[in-house]
Design goal:
The chain is of the alpha+beta class and 267 residues long. Strand 16 and strand 17 form a beta hairpin. It is 20% helix and 35% strand. It folds into two domains: 153 residues, no CATH class; 80 residues, Elongation Factor Tu (Ef-tu), domain 3.
Length: 267
């Protein structure tokens, strides 16, 4: 009898210790995932801030620096010239919208094939993007065989190398699937498609403060944006528990926000 009582007490103690271990282990795993979520959100907001701060750098007045979509989570594109100021003027009128761009007499060695560029007509204050398919340095001609421009650009139009980045959340093919991983994607246009920047980023929001003080979800005129509020939310990789009352998995979230001064747009 004494041996049986001791065995029962021992079993209870072992079960209690085991339950305590499981609880502590679960808490450690959750805290580790919360730390990962914080690091992902911080890195994401830092990267977004750096690109938004560059928006509009060395672009002509008629070219958009920011394009936004209120897609919930939001999508954003920013445009700027990379440091180095790669540009050249047309020295001949284009006879057709599909014609090559003749920058005779100018150094075009800084232009790169399969990259995005922008052509701008200052007289008409209009322009558009295209992809460079060939750079003929000897003749100073730029080809754009995959992009037929919308108009014949005249002599004096300027061709710019432009960096264009798109930021959005990829929810996965089936956002409701257990294996779905919401991911912050970065697409550098002309670089072969989007790449994953940070996993478990489940929300991305932008708010734009305009020149007149209005705050908008989508700017009505991008070059009048003066500040951008950025909010990034990250979640843990695994749910902490299942809320049986609403049949929904509960994740821990970490949210970070910042305000970015768009210093390269006109004041």
């Amino acid at each position: 009898m004494e041996l049986m009582v001791a065995s029962i007490i021992g079993a209870v103690l072992v079960m209690s210790v085991f339950q305590l271990y499981l609880s502590q282990h679960r808490s450690w795993i959750i805290q580790d995932e919360v730390t990962d979520a914080q690091q992902s959100a911080r890195a994401s907001i830092r990267m977004l801030s750096d690109h938004i701060r560059m928006a509009g750098y060395a672009l002509p007045d008629g070219m958009p620096a920011i394009i936004a979509w209120n897609t919930d989570p939001d999508t954003l594109m920013v445009f700027y010239q990379p440091p180095g100021m790669c540009d050249a003027p047309l020295e001949w009128d284009m006879p057709q919208p599909s014609a090559e761009l003749r920058c005779d007499g100018h150094d075009i060695s800084c232009f790169e094939e399969n990259k995005w560029a922008y052509i701008y007509d200052p007289a008409a204050d209009t322009g558009e993007f295209f992809v460079i398919t060939e750079v003929q340095e000897a003749s100073s001609h730029i080809q754009h065989n995959t992009t037929v421009l919308s108009r014949k650009y005249p002599k004096g139009s300027q061709v710019f190398m432009v960096e264009a980045y798109r930021f959005y959340i990829d929810q996965g093919a089936d956002p409701e699937a257990a294996t779905a991983v919401p991911t912050l994607m970065v697409e550098k246009m002309g670089e072969g498609g989007p790449v994953a920047f940070a996993d478990y980023i489940d929300d991305l929001q932008f708010r734009f403060v305009m020149q007149n003080g209005d705050t908008l979800d989508v700017p009505n005129y991008a070059n009048l944006v003066r500040r951008v509020f950025v909010t990034v939310s990250a979640r843990t990789a695994r749910p902490e528990q299942l809320d049986e009352s609403i049949d929904e998995e509960i994740y821990r979230h970490r949210e970070f926000a910042t305000e970015v001064q768009v210093r390269n747009l006109g004041f």
